[in-house]
C-alpha cells in the first residue's frame, strides 16, 4: 500500500506540475491545477469504490463458473509469466480487509470450503478490477467546461489520472487471474482425495 501511495503521489505532482509549465489555461491561477488533480484523483477512488460496491451486491452464483473473465487460458497465463507477476505481486496492495478475507497468501490448502471461498473472492476481485478500468475514464466527462470548448482539463488532467488509475487497478486483476488456475487445481485435487476417502470408507 505504501508503494502504491508513493506512486500516486508522484504522479499527482507530475500531472499538476506539467500543467503549471505547459498548460496556459489557468496561467494566472496555477494552484487550480493542484486542486483539479486532487479532485480527479479522489473521484477516481470513489468510482473504484462504487464499482466494488455494485459488484459485491451481485449474487454469488454468478461467480461459480470458470468461464469468461474468470477463466485464465494458457496464452493469458504465459502473458502473466512474461510480465513476471510472481516477482512483483507482493508489492501490490491486497484489500481483503474490506471483505474479511485476505487473498495474499494461502492459509489452509487442504480445506476445500476455504479454497472455494478463496476462488469466489478472487473472481469477485477480478470483476471489480476489470470493470473499474472503463469506469476510470468517466472522469473525463466531469470537465463540464469542455462541452463548450472552454477547457482542456479533461485531456491534461482527467485523462492522465484515468490512465494511471486504470493501470494501478488492473495489476491486482492480473495477480488474481494468475493465481486462479492454481487454486482450481488445488480444489479439484482435494475433491478427488475426498472422494477417494469416501470410497475407501465404503469398502
Summarize the structure.
By secondary structure, the protein is mainly alpha-helical. It contains six helices and no strands.
What layout of secondary structure does this protein have?
Blueprint: H1 2-22, H2 31-56, H3 74-82, H4 85-88, H5 112-136, H6 153-202
Helix pairs in contact: 1-2, 1-6, 2-5, 2-6, 5-6
The ordered string of helix (H) and strand (E) elements is HHHHHH
Radius of gyration, taken over Cα atoms and rounded to an integer in Å: 21 Å
Tertiary shape? elongated
What's the count of strands? 0
The helix-and-strand class reads: mainly alpha
- The fraction of residues assigned to DSSP E strands is under 5%
Report the biggest beta sheet as strand number plus sense, adding barrel if it closes: none
The end-to-end span amounts to 53 Å
- Helicity, as a percent range: 55-70%
Q: Catalogue the unreliable spans.
A: none
- Helical region count? 6
pLDDT averaged over residues: 93
Amino acid at each position: 500500500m505504501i508503494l502504491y501511495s508513493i506512486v500516486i503521489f508522484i504522479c499527482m505532482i507530475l500531472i499538476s506540475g506539467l500543467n503549471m509549465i505547459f498548460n496556459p489555461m489557468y496561467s494566472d491561477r496555477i494552484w487550480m491545477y493542484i486542486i483539479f488533480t486532487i479532485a480527479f484523483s479522489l473521484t477516481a477512488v470513489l468510482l473504484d469504490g462504487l464499482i466494488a460496491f455494485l459488484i459485491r451486491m451481485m449474487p454469488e452464483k454468478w461467480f461459480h463458473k470458470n468461464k469468461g473473465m474468470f477463466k485464465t487460458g494458457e496464452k493469458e497465463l504465459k502473458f502473466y509469466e512474461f510480465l513476471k507477476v510472481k516477482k512483483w505481486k507482493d508489492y501490490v496492495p491486497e484489500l481483503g480487509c474490506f471483505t474479511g478475507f485476505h487473498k495474499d497468501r494461502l492459509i489452509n490448502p487442504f480445506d476445500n470450503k476455504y479454497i472455494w471461498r478463496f476462488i469466489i473472492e478472487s473472481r469477485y476481485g477480478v470483476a471489480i478490477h476489470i470493470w473499474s478500468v472503463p469506469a476510470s475514464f468517466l472522469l473525463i466527462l466531469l470537465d463540464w467546461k469542455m462541452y463548450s470548448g472552454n477547457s482542456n482539463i479533461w485531456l491534461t488532467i482527467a485523462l492522465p489520472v484515468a490512465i494511471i488509475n486504470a493501470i494501478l487497478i488492473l495489476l491486482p486483476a492480473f495477480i488474481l487471474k494468475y493465481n486462479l488456475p492454481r487454486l482450481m487445481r488445488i480444489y479439484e485435487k482435494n475433491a478427488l482425495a475426498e472422494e477417494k476417502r469416501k470410497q475407501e470408507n465404503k469398502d
